Amino acid sequence: MSLKRKPLVVVTRRLPDVVETRMRELFDARLNHEDTPLTGAALAQALQEADVLVPTVTDEIDASVLAQAGPNLRLIANFGNGVDHIDVGVALQRGITVTNTPGVLTEDTADMTMALILSVARRVTEGARIIPDDAWSGGWSPTWMLGRRITGKRLGIVGMGRIGQALARRAKAFGLSIHYHNRRRVGARIESDLEATYWESLDQMLARVDIVSVNCPHTPATYHLLSARRLKLLKPEAVVVNTARGEVIDETALARLIEVGDIAGAGLDVFEQEPAVSPRLVKLAKAGKVVLLPHMGSATHESRVDMGEKVIINIKTFLDGHRPPDRILPSML
Ligand SMILES: NC(=O)c1ccc[n+]([C@@H]2O[C@H](COP(=O)([O-])OP(=O)(O)OC[C@H]3O[C@@H](n4cnc5c(N)ncnc54)[C@H](O)[C@@H]3O)[C@@H](O)[C@H]2O)c1
Question: For atom 8 of ligand 1, which residue has the closest CA?
Fold first, then answer.
């Protein structure tokens, strides 16, 4: 791609200082230091003028937004892994390349998934509220704050990709047995290292596991993959954890099943109507049945810098006339 002027890179959200400094050195970077992302007229203007747009997960780049793009927009370099907030099909039709930042969020998101499993099973967040809220008399009783042991239990991973496998490594160390359902069976070496059992039938796996973790992307095929019918297959002691995307679970059905005691609890980092969170889930959190996090699965200083570096490499490679390493291909959708 040859441009006489320096290509304009528009970023919708504040990024780590080190990333913004590098972007300013390399590109004509228009950065956003407001607390709110670019929306409405500001986003439309950015799309009109930009050669490259750098959105994040909170930016809804659908077909109507893309219709406002000017002729120069050739690359959407997403600051994040999941691209379900972008209509990638329409972008590709318009000749716009889309990239993401895979790999660098894997370990941190797997850590947070494990943290959610432990929090729900051992009531960590519930317990942590007691002393600051002065609800603790100082007494201790053998029947007080009992959780569930995780050692020896079965973990069912839905989506055995990078994060699913990183979670499986951690869970194995905690003494959980690993079960998984994936679009395709993973290689024999990985399966053997993780001592993982593959379930072609998601239904059959759900009926047998104690903890379910959702680690697949949100795509048309995974929307409500954990439907009301499938959630009903879980044991009443089962716990559901989701650090992937809210839309993969029928959240209303999940809340209802927890309310009536047909599922023990849940740990959720992502929600169907994000950033809105269902009042039913909030009520369940107050009752200590669910743990809710504000989409912080990958939120470490290190991952944000690494993500920024990936975005920069994708932009620079593209502007140098080569294929960026993290291109989204139609086969991935
Ligand atoms: N909470 C966070 O902050 C956070 C951070 C990073 C990623 N994520 C989410 O986690 C998701 C997974 O990330 P990853 O890096 O492991 O992705 P990945 O592409 O490495 O793995 C996803 C796996 O899901 C499988 N899959 C896809 N469709 C499926 C289906 N219909 N049924 C069963 N399996 C299916 C794929 O085959 C793949 O193995 C991302 O798409 C993103 O939405 C969330």
Answer: 244
Atom of ligand 1 nearest to the CA of 245: 43
Mean pLDDT of the chain, nearest integer: 95
State the DSSP code for 226: B
The residues, any chain, with a CB within 8 Å of residue 158's CB and separated by 6 or more, are 164, 180, 181, 182, 202, 212, 213, 214, 215, 216, 225, 226, 248
d(Cα 228, Cα 247) in Å, to the nearest integer? 13
Q: Which atom of ligand 1 is nearest to the CA of 219?
A: 28
% of the chain exceeding 70 in pLDDT: 99
Instruction: Say whether pLDDT at 2 is over 90.
Output: no
ipTM reported for the complex, 2 dp = 0.99
DSSP 270: -
Report the run of H or E that residue 168 belongs to, with start and end: helix 162-173
> Which residue carries 């959105």 as its tokens?
55
Residue 1 has pLDDT above 60, yes or no: no
Over residues 9-30, mean pLDDT: 95
Q: Determine the Cα–Cα distance for residues 316 and 308; give it in Å rounded to an integer.
A: 12
Dihedral angle computed from the Cα positions of residues 26, 27, 28 and 30, in that order, rounded to the nearest 10 degrees: -100
Please confirm, yes or no, whether 224 is among the known catalytic residues: no
Nearest CA to ligand 1 atom 2: 297
Per-residue pLDDT, averaged over 289-312, amounts to 97
Specify the CATH number for 6-102+299-330; select among 3.40.630.40, 3.30.70.360, 3.40.309.10, 3.40.50.720: 3.40.50.720
CA of 331 to the centre of ligand 1 (A): 14
- Equal fold, 6-102+299-330 vs 105-290: yes
76 vs 86: CA distance, rounded Å: 9
Is the distance from CB of 143 to CB of 121 less than 8 angstroms?
no
The tokens of 150 are what? 């995780």
Cβ(69)–Cβ(47) under 8 Å?
yes
Residue 302 appears among annotated catalytic residues: no
- Domains of the chain, residue spans: 6-102+299-330, 105-290
Give the DSSP H/E element, type plus range, for residue 178. Answer: strand 177-181
